[in-house]
Structure formats: C-alpha cells, structure tokens
Amino acid sequence: GLIAIGFTSTPQFLAAEPPSRGRAIREQITIVADVPYANNDNPRQQLDLFLPKQPVLNAPLPVIVFVHGGGWRKGDRRSGLTMLAPLIASGRFAGASIGYRLTDEASWPAQMHDCKAAVRWLRGNAGKHGLNADRIAVIGTSAGGHLVAMLGTSGGVAELEGDLGAFVGLSSRVQCVVDFFGPSDLATMGGWHNKPDAPEALLLGGPIQENQDLAQSASPIHYVSADDPPFLMIHGTADPLVPFGQSVELQKKLEATGVTAFLIPIENGGHGRFRIPDLDQRIGNFLDNQLHEGDKTIDLTPIPAASPQR
Fold first, then answer.
1. Which residues are CB-neighbours of 8 under 8 A, at least 6 positions away?
2. Which among 64, 170, 238, 280 is placed 20 to 30 Å from 301, CA to CA?
3. For residue 279, which phi and psi values (nearest 5 degrees)?
4. Is the pLDDT of residue 282 over 50?
5. pTM for the whole thing?
6. Alpha-carbon distance 184 to 122, whole Å?
C-alpha cells in the first residue's frame, strides 16, 4: 500500500527561508513514499510522489521528476523534495523523486533501465494520481544530471529501455530536461576519470579506456537527435569534478541538431547546488514554458557564484 508521510527535516533548498515559511511550504505537499516501480521490493527501485494539497489547475498536473546525484554509487532519492518543494507547493506541478540501483549493486545500463521504468510507471499511473502523462520534466544533479540527459536524448533507443515494471508498452520519453553539471561524454572527461577506481569505471564495470564502446553507450551526447526535448543546463565554470566543457559540448551538439538547448554558466562556480534565487526564477520560467505553454524569456546571462566554492 501507499503511505503518505510528513517531511520533518529542513530541506537545504529552504534553508534561507524563515523556518515558519519552510514548514508552511512542506505542509502544502502530500508525500506518497516508497512506491515500487519495478514490480519488486528493492528499496532502490522505488519513487516518492509529491502532490500539492491544493492544486491550482482544474486539470491533470505536469510532473517534475528529480534524479539524485552521488557518482552513481551513493546518494538517495530523499534529497528530491529539497529541490522540488517550492515548485510543488505552487500547486502547478506534481513531482517525483526516483531511486535507482547504484554501482555496488549493478552496472550500466541498469541505472537507465531503472529511470525509464520509473517514468513509465508515472505514465501508467497518471490517471490515478491526477498527473499529465504528456508533460514530464526531469531534473538531475551531477550523476543525476547525466541520467536526465540520457533520458532526454535516448527516447526510442530500444537497448536502453529494459523490461522492468508493469508498463513496458508505454513511452519513457520526457518533455524537457534540466541538467545540473552532468557528464555528457564519458570518454572525454579525462584525468582521474580514466582511473580504474573512478566513478565512471565503477559505472561501466571497468576503466573507460578499456571499455570505449560501453562508455559511448553511457554518454548522452552519443544519442542526440532532432526529436530530443528542450534542455536547460546549469554548470559552474570552475567545476573540479565534471568539466564545464561537458555541458558546452552537449549544448553545441543539441543546437546543431535543431534542439532547443540553453546553458547558464555559474562563473567560478564549483560542483554543487547553487543557492541563487535568480537561478531558481530562470529554471521556473523554463519549466513554465515547457509544461504550461508559457512564453517567458530565459535569461542566459552568466551568474556569479554566490560565494567561493570548493
């Protein structure tokens, strides 16, 4: 059965808010936790669904899906509400945060099979939860940025679909992507990423240099095609973990293929969540345009990092 739970700890996203406002936002959200999407009891193959208690639309709600980071080897879907809470509380969106098997349990493409199964589950259960199955956005950070970029570029790629869950006949395509500093081309990451114990090596089951075909199969840039959905990428120019060029190259390839692709550089930004209200507004405008047929201008001016970042 589905259990609705309250969210008690203060999300980072709301850390700057007065505690009363943070609580007020969370109290506007119903959480349906620990929903299995792959027809099994693996706790990593579950999602949490977030529904506004007071939707403002008299229609099914678009869904914003969060995919967590952690180098494919750690992290957890519980971090999703942190980023999504203000969007859900607006009453204009539903949300979900999806877990996936980490590299201690399975190697590529298991992570993609999981993410696609979760998207199909949301489509298959849209009617039950008041979701708009034709309006699904994905947001991810770091390794999660990589996975949402893969979701955006690999729509219709049969070998990445997998056969998990009850809705294998449904599409796993998404309608837009917000990619925070995700790798886009594993073979060109360079440096320590090529080492046998790098996160990418753990993902692939061996070092990149010895697994070039597999590295290509796990690289969003390899799948770019004209029917991909619009992308918004956010990346720190001084990111020490995922080179800024990873987003630059993906944007170039998407644009050259005719896909709408925006990149907002965070000047001197490192590898991390950027707590910048102006950035939140720009992301909100992008989601509004893609999911609510808005026509807001997306400001692509580089944003200075709020403080020196490690």
1. none
2. 64
3. -65, -40
4. yes
5. 0.92
6. 25
